[in-house]
Amino acid sequence: MQKINREALIEKAAALLDAGTVDRVLAWKRGEFDYDVTPGLFTTREQMEAELVFGDFCGANMSKYLIKETLKGEGKVLVFLKPCDTYSFNQLLTEHRFDREKVYAVGIPCEGMLSVTAIKAAAGDGISKIDVTEEGVVVETLFDGTKVFGHDEMLAERCRNCKSKRHVAYDELMGEEGEVLDSARFDEVAKIEAMSSEERFAFWQGELSRCIRCNACRDVCPACTCEKCVFGNPDSGIENKAITDSFEEKMFHIIRAFHVAGRCTDCGECSRVCPQQIPLHLLNRKFIKDANNLWGDYQAGEEVGSRAPLVDFDFDDMEPGEAVIKNGGEQ
Amino acid sequence: MRAISYAKLDTLFAKIAETHGVYLPVEGKKGTDYKRWEQGDVYSTALNSNRSPKDIFFPQSENLMDFKVEGKSIEIVDTRSESEDFVIFGVRACDVKSIEVLDRVFLKEPADSYYENRRSHAVIMSMACTKPAETCFCKTFGIDPAEPMGDIACWVDGEVLYMNANTEKGEALLEKLEGITEEASADAADTAKALITERMAKLPLAALKADAFGAGKTQKYFDHPAWAELSEACLGCGTCTYVCPTCQCYDIKDFNTGHGVKRFRCWDSCMYSDFTQMSAGQPRLTQLERFRQRFMHKLVYYPENNDGMFSCVGCGRCLAKCPIKMNIAKVMKTIGKENDND
Fold first, then answer.
1. Does A327 score more than 80 pLDDT?
2. Domain coverage including residue B48
């Protein structure tokens, strides 16, 4: 259950609109069902009262929309940021992807977002209502009555392993500030590292062979902000729209993970949107884990302007050969 | 109508496999997908497969031909090798209809011989639904999940699978299966049919109508002001198009192997910025235009060219999979709204 509700967001947004601080609001819009929430723009209180929602399915990270939104008009846009969204916000600022002056950021608390996929898998087809109460996640179905599931089991994986409840950027904060958490987010990576190379290959082959190259992971990723991706640019010479062999499917995702290494804040949007449920965030986490191991802990987006290990240098950096050995490789 | 014990599905598949390849939905680690049946595979009763049976007739990528270059001569090599008759089992009513949508595109003269080849070798065994999802709206497009089309329609009632032939192809296959099936009365599946009909009425999208759309509505909807808001959050990814059982756009490319050329085609998506890129550029410069194209195609342009048939079948895959949860049901409700009062 979230500690803040839609009424509080509407009041805050309406006040900022009335005061002329902002002229539009980026938030979450109600859908057909309790779980299908769409990011959207609001300009009036009436519109917000009719359509704005905030609840346990508002996982969408709004930060990337600011690139497009801040190019429109002169006024400021209000954006509501959950703690993990603020890391993407800072990272985008570090990369000069939008004008900070055109944004009014309100930090909002987050108790973790639920996974629709997990709920559907547990409750089956025909969901008519989902409520989050003290009891847990209460799912009403059309044909099988009401089912109750534990809240933590229905949390999205990224939220079960939440890295921070602290906002690293905002103009104003609603609710109480949280702490950076000691999460178990690298446990799954460690499990994959412990596999033999054959097992590891089979694991990723099994996952990545399901890829349909819809590019949703790339298009939602706040670190993937190239105006024209090489893979979607006929002039790049390496454009490809489909997987033509098992090599290419791995190359796309591994290249993408390299491209965002050091810039990925581990927001987990890639895995949330993947229609094939590929745990893409694990590739990014592997890079984060390795970088932490080799050059000391670094969290992308924690500070605006920080230099990621892969684009930074000092004379104490270890030699590549040492790094290989430190990571368990052979000389 | 023929019947076989549901527990004997393996016997049924094995019998068909004597003369045909058998494809069916099988539960994997992350949802259900169609695969070629092998002994030990269990038919999945999941409502929607991740990828639709479209993939079997129109694969995501396929080699069309090779060009072999020797000196100054070029030899064109037909790389097609498929000639096997096959059965697709367990196709839902919406997905069966989607194949009809594809047929109208690919089999219209001049027919696409690659598609036609696979289509002519296929026998479709459809499966009536038992428990629809909240995302289902096939009835909007006149599809009855209690009476699925296809060469043979199937129903499951308790421990029995009923089969009824809809076509000559279906009759021929059922005849071959007579040794392992039993005769059943024509109304044997009526209980199963009644259950699904009753359940369909309870769906949240049961009242969604397509009446406001169809041929001749281009002028009316093309400049509708709501397209801007509907498309504002669209990421421009291809999820909706790639999970859609009726989306049929593709791109053809040549791949230089160094000593020849492989010509292949692969799915394309109208949501992509380089879709139908021409020497003069891409005709749809903004995501609004690309977004509008997809829905106008399904609801207006396709019906215009195909006797009023829509190219959405209400399977609900895009409702479930869109990263921003924008979809055709929301588009129909918004764009078609004022028509309620017409």
1. no
2. 2-200
Judging contacts by C-beta atoms under 8 Å, the chain A residues touching residue B66 are none
Residues of A with Cβ-Cβ distance to B133 under 8 angstroms:
125-127
pLDDT digits (tens, 9 = 90+) for A92-151: 999 999 999 999 999 999 999 999 999 999 999 999 999 999 999 999 999 999 999 999
Q: A126–B236: do the CB atoms touch at under 8 Å?
A: no
Banded model confidence at residue A321, pLDDT cuts 50, 70, 90: confident
A126 touches chain B (CB under 8 A): yes
Alpha-carbon gap: B172 to the closest alpha carbon of chain A (Å) = 35
Contact A61, A88 (CB under 8 A): yes
C-beta atoms of B50 and A276 within 8 A: yes
Domains in chain A: boundaries: 6-115+157-173, 116-154, 187-326
Taking the Cβ of residue A206 and every Cβ of chain B, the question of whether any pair is shorter than 8 Å is answered with yes
What is the greatest pairwise CA distance in chain B?
70
Pair B20, B163 in one domain = yes
Q: What are the tokens at A304?
A: 């605006």
Q: Does A50 touch chain B (CB under 8 A)?
A: no
- On chain A, the residues whose CB falls within 8 A of the CB of B47 are 125
Based on the domain organization, do B195 and B227 belong to the same domain?
no
Contacts with A153 (C-beta within 8 Å, 6 or more apart), sequence order: A118, A122
Based on the domain organization, do B148 and B20 belong to the same domain? yes
3-state secondary structure chain A: CCCCCHHHHHHHHHHHHHCCCCCEEEEEECCCCCCCCEEEEECCHHHHHHHEECCCCCCCCCCCHHHHHCCCCCCCEEEEECHHHHHHHHHHHHCCCCCHHHEEEEECCCCCCECHHHHHHHHCCCEEEEEEECCEEEEEECCCCEEEECHHHHECHHHHCCCECCCCCCCEECCCCCCECCCCCCHHHHHHHCCCHHHHHHHHHHHHCCCCCCCHHHHHCCCCCCCCCHHHCHHHCCCCCCCCCHHHHHHHHHHHHHHHCCCCCCCCHHHHHCCCCCCCHHHHHHHHHHHHHHHCCCCCCCCCCCCCHHHCCCCCCCCHHHHHHHCCCCC
Shortest CA distance from B318: residue in chain A:
A275
Chain A residues lying within 8 Å of B237, measured CB to CB: 214-216, 218-220, 273
Same domain, B137 and B257: no
Do B324 and A233 count as a contact with CB atoms less than 8 A apart?
no
What is the ipTM for the molecules in this complex? 0.94
Min Cα distance B30 → chain A (Å) is 7
Q: Out of B60, B232, B330, whose CB is closest to A212?
A: B60
Question: Are the Cβ atoms of A40 and B233 closer than 8 angstroms?
Answer: yes
